[in-house]
Amino acid sequence: EANPAMGFRGIRLLLAHPSLLHTQLRAILRLSATHSVAILLPMIDGIDELRAAKAAIERAKAELAAAGLSFNHRIPIGAMIETPSAALLVRYLADEVDFFSVGTNDLVQFLLAADRIRGEMPSTYDPLHPAVIQLLAKLATVARGKGTPISLCGEIASDPSYTSLLIGLGFRSFSVSPGRLLDIKHAIRTTGVQQAENLAEEVLLLCSTRDIKARVQDDWNRRRPVSSPEIVPRCSYVARFSERHPEFADLVDRRDGDLN
Length: 260
What we know:
It is built from twelve helices and six strands. It is an alpha/beta fold and 260 residues long. The chain has a domain at 76-230: Phosphoenolpyruvate-binding domains (TIM Barrel, Alpha-Beta Barrel), CATH 3.20.20.60. The strands form two sheets. A four-stranded parallel β-sheet has the order 1-2-3-4. The protein has a two-stranded antiparallel ribbon with strand order 5-6. Residues 253-260 have low confidence and may be disordered.
């Protein structure tokens, strides 16, 4: 594909190759007999895809049961919220799953029609765009109202300068890269819930990305350790590294915007 990030991947790819999906589901289900595991379905875009995936899970369960193999019959099933369509339908998806995980990298990219990989257009991909903040607030509110656990992953979950705002928006669970654990712990320990909620209320009233970034940076400046970075999209660091060190270009995973 010309742009595989927009197309044939995640649950779309798995549903198109049922034997591959079935093999993966059997393996996860068998592991669930002895370990605490869950199934998180990626790139869900609506109810139909979700139900098709759940039906595949039930077929795998039936096959294992018929063979007398043990598994957790009530294994938790979750959905990744990383497409705008899933975000808009989150109220209905909540009735179908046990938990959510918000994939902010793709969600921001799709919501803003921004390529987060291309170095010549770094400003179009910005997690502090007001549309992103408004949508994250909605997701946290709906999940809380439905009693559905929701976690947040992606670049912003590992950036301590965003932590207070995300707590204020209603998130309490973050998927964090190991190298940023101490930074995120510091950010959490220096943030009060009321303070975070006040920050979120202020930010939700702003309609300018520049104003939001200034307000979030001002909040972080009062609490950050001396060595903590400014708010800069992580993909920008990767682009700079590639430019300065072309000899390591093959180590850059441009799909995820990370360094291997």
